[in-house]
Every structure is written in C-alpha cells, then in structure tokens.
Amino acid sequence: PLSQPFSFERHSNVRFRIYKQPLMLSEVVVHNGSETTETVELRLEHMRAMFSLSAASSNDRTLWLRKIQQAQDEVTHSDKCKLQRQQSIRTRHPIGMLRIVLVEVTDVNRNKIRSTGKREVFCEVSMGSQEHRTPPAHATMQSDPRWNATMQFLVKDLNEDVLCITVLDRGHFTPDEFLGRTEVRISDILHLSQNSRGPIVKNLPLHEVDSGEVMLKLDLRLFDSQ
Fold first, then answer.
1. Which of residues 45, 67, 91 is at a domain's end?
2. Nearest to 100 by CA among 123, 117, 77, 83
3. Residues 80 and 127 placed together within one structural domain of the fold
4. What is the pLDDT along the chain (226 residues), one digit of tens a residue?
5. Residue 65, domain extent
6. CA atoms within 13 A on the CB side of 213
7. Which of 6, 56, 88, 161 suits a disulfide with 186, CB 3.0-4.6 Å?
8. CB-based contacts of 174: which residues, under 8 Å, 6+ apart?
9. Where are the alpha helices (DSSP H) in the chain?
C-alpha cells in the first residue's frame, strides 16, 4: 500500500540497497481505470507486466497519478533536451584533446572471483560517441588488474563532455559481469589541471558496487584557438 511518504531524515542511520531492477518512468504506462470517488487502486504497466498499487485514499491516488504524470513529463523534456545537446555537440569542431592512461583498478570486488580463481577484467571507456576498450587483464585474490592503456578523446564541450568508465569481467560462455562504473567531467579535469604542468593522477571510486577504484593519468590539452 502507498501510505505515508518515505523520509530519509527518519531513517538516517539505515542503509538501503536496491533489490529489484527499478522501473524507468519512460517505460511505464499508467492505467487510470475507474474514476469513482472511492477508487484507491492504480495500475502500472511495464514491459507487458502489470502492477496494482493501493493508495491510502482516493485523494492520495489522485496525488500519485498527478505526481507520476509530472515526473514522466519532466523525463520526456529532459531526454529531449539531452538529445538536442548531443546532436549539437556532434556537429561542433573539437576544442581540445584528452589523453588518458588507464593504469589499473584496485580493490575490485574479490568476493565474486569465478570458480577458476581469477578474473579477466577489462574496461570500456567512452565520451559521447567515442569509445575505447582495454584488453583483458588477469585479477586474482592477491592481484589487481593492470593495463597502462593509453587512449585519446576529442573534446568538443568543456561543460557537457563526460568521461565514462565501466569495469567488466569477461565471460567466455556467460554474459560479461558488471564490476562497477565511474565517471569524471571534463570541466573537473580542466579545474584540476590548472595548477599542474603535466598529466594529473586521479583515483575514481567505482559506483554501484561495494568497493573498487580506477587509477587514471589525465592530460587535457586545449587547442590554440581556445
């Protein structure tokens, strides 16, 4: 049932973990159903699956329907603006070059080492439509994967461009296993580079996992016109 709104202030000392895949608002269809004053049920459809929810009252049901619709409108508007920005960035001329050296991933989650006792870890690195991938590197309970892989990316927008890194364990007969992701904005790299005469070293924590860091060397060079 949909009762009182959740408050993080009342649960400040509690740690939560998502145990089911969240429903994306852009993929949800709301069925209003009956509109009588006593109706408290609302139904959501997602990927051909139906979910029935019960509000505390008909007024709460109306409020939930309104809030869901507002959120969906905001997501649609945000996605449209993001697509327009991406299309605009693709047509721009490069204003700089980012050279990175992906050194290693430390403290990668060792609790999920495969039965063979080792992993074949690789990284997918992207910025917009530009993508690179490291070769697989072995990781065991005692050693972390290391590459020292060099990559280059063209920078087109200092405020919008984001370097994204996803760490994966290669599966030969199964899907690749997700080991974490991280990102850094080009504007942050520019800020950190202002007091440095050469490449900077940065450790980025992995998200959506319990542990892990990516060690990078970053060298941002803007073209003379900038």
1. 91
2. 123
3. no
4. 445 565 656 666 666 666 666 778 888 888 876 656 677 888 888 877 888 888 888 888 888 888 889 999 998 888 888 777 767 666 778 999 999 999 999 988 655 555 456 788 999 999 988 999 999 998 887 889 999 999 999 999 999 899 999 999 988 778 888 999 999 999 999 999 988 888 999 999 999 888 899 999 999 999 986 4
5. 6-91
6. 8
7. 161
8. none
9. 58-90, 186-193
Residues 6+ apart with CB under 8 A from 30: 42, 43, 44, 45, 65, 68, 69
- Report CA Rg, the chain: 23
Instruction: With 0.85 as the threshold, say if the pTM is over it.
Output: no
Polymer length of the chain: 226
Q: Which amino acid is present at 34? A: S
Whole-number Å distance between alpha carbons of 101 and 167: 15
Specify whether 176 is located in the same domain as 151. yes
Q: Which of 175, 169, 171 minimizes the C-alpha distance to 209? A: 169
Q: DSSP characters for 139-159?
A: EESS---EEEEEEEEEE--TT
